[in-house]
Amino acid sequence: MASLNxxxxxxxxxxxxxxxxxxLYGVGLTDEDMNKPQIGIxxxxxxxxxxxxxxxxxxxxxxxxxxxxxxxxxxxxxxxxSDGMTNGNNGMSFSLPSRDIIADSIEDVVQAQWYDGVIAVxxxxxxxxxxxxxxxxxxxxxxxxxxxxxxxxxYKGKKLDIVSAFEALGQxxxxxxxxEDYNGVIKNAIPGAGACGGMYTxxxxxxxxxxxxxxxxxxSSYPATHEGKKAECLAIGAAMKNMLEKNIxxxxxxxxxxxxxxxxxxxxxxxxxNAVLHYLAIASxxxxxxxxxxxxxxxxxxxxxxxxxxxxxYYMEDMLAIGGVPALMKYLLKKGLIHGDxxxxxxxxxxxxxxxxxxxxxxxxxxxxPIESPIKASGHLQVLYGNLASGGAVAKITGKxxxxxxxxxxxxxxxxxxxxxxxxGEIKPGHxxxxxxxxxKGGPGMPEMLKPTSAVMGAGLGNSVAMIxxxxxxxxxxxxxxxxxxxxxxDGGTIALVKDGDKITIDAxxxxxxxxxxxxxxxxxxxxxxxxxxxxxxxVLRKYIKNxxxxxxxxxxxL
Length: 559
Ligand code: FES
What we know:
Blueprint: H1 10-16, H2 18-26, E1 38-43, H3 55-68, E2 72-77, H4 83-86, H5 95-113, E3 117-122, H6 127-138, E4 142-146, E5 153-155, E6 158-160, H7 162-174, H8 179-188, H9 201-211, H10 227-246, H11 250-253, H12 256-269, H13 274-286, H14 292-301, H15 324-334, H16 350-354, E7 381-386, E8 389-396, E9 404-412, H17 415-423, E10 431-435, H18 450-458, E11 466-469, E12 480-486, E13 503-507, E14 512-515, H19 519-528, H20 539-547
Parallel strand pairs: 1-2, 1-3, 3-4, 9-10, 10-11, 11-12
Antiparallel strand pairs: 5-6, 7-8, 8-12, 9-13, 13-14
Helix pairs in contact: 1-2, 3-10, 5-6, 6-13, 7-8, 7-18, 9-12, 12-13, 12-14, 17-18
Bound molecules: FE2/S2 (inorganic) cluster.
């Protein structure tokens, strides 16, 4: 099979640069290989964390599938920062920027090496949206392979995952866990390879990118260590060959309707707030008009029906037994909640892919609720506006914690102060914890607040306090939380002006975030406000601060 699509480079490259061909002979290609399509395989593998530790191995299977289908597969690497490692420390500032570095690096290699197609092997929160941004920019045949969810850990008969470790810390502060049990939880929470096991950010992005048609069916449902994951990697070659032959490109798949399908799955399954940020950014890369208002519209029409962690009971590994994400998609398609006519990487539409998928069995399985008796009648992600968030904020409210909270501000200038105040017992029921200076520029990098939210939960305050921030929340966060407050404190947003004792209303029914301080008083406070200068004067975070857009625009860096 010769190079088949409009990016075919073989002859042109030779005319302009004979060294390129010479170099390909040097890496082991044969005369016959020279006329084959070249597929870049972007691995985000990395030994240092469980989300990405197995991805280099999966990439080798992907390469095998590519070679078996008459193409040349060439593995290259990009980075994979794990939020399991960065949460609660300064490393978190580098996490969201890594998404854009991943996007840039895949775009860079594929453009520079003129690959006919690209396959990204991804397994953690940022490498999935980063890869999606890259393939949208490149718009040449491309697909994603998800590394798969982790299995649950076990300690004293209880199932554990990464969030258990953070919540154990809160129990330690509250004095409700022994040292032995604390260490038992930490040692057993993470049993091996795979992405964090609840409907946290990685599984949220994996499920929704499958719903977008960018992976083979069931990619998000096979755990990392399941045999099906290897089979998926091997099957990718035939799918790529078909895409090349039909010249199916990402923007044929990443349409406005496909973004709606992706966010519908996020809402139905109780996914992470980070999906809002990422799909705004991916849509921007794909040239698709998709805004916070569109996300709110999807939330309004989509019931929360997935009883999955962090607010629910089940883990992603449980989904496979009930038919996986395809079974859920088929149900949503029947109910008219997703579009069936969107193209996918199989060369078939969503509806065609789902035609032979068995229906969900509501007698047997309890993970997905019937739409007629949902966990919450509308989506758990709500976009709030008000004098505290004139540019918008994103609330994650499943209804279990109520839909309205009125309380008194307890201001934390940084995430670390929450832990300090908790240790001193200064956070009380009725407080709205305001964590500021954690936005895209002020953080910088809009850190996730998993450590404070888990510590609050662990301290038994989950039902009696709320939290708002210009930072983000981990997909593992649950409780009454509002993030992405825009404008951020660094830019002089109202969140910078809040004082201890101010009254705050969070209303997820009328979608309001209100600081009950008069305009006159706010004007006085604003006149006295001074921007805190950033300590980052060079390097990657300096570049990020200079380029990043607001959370309401997806924190993109290439506008
Ligand atoms: Fe990588 Fe959770 S930190 S998937």
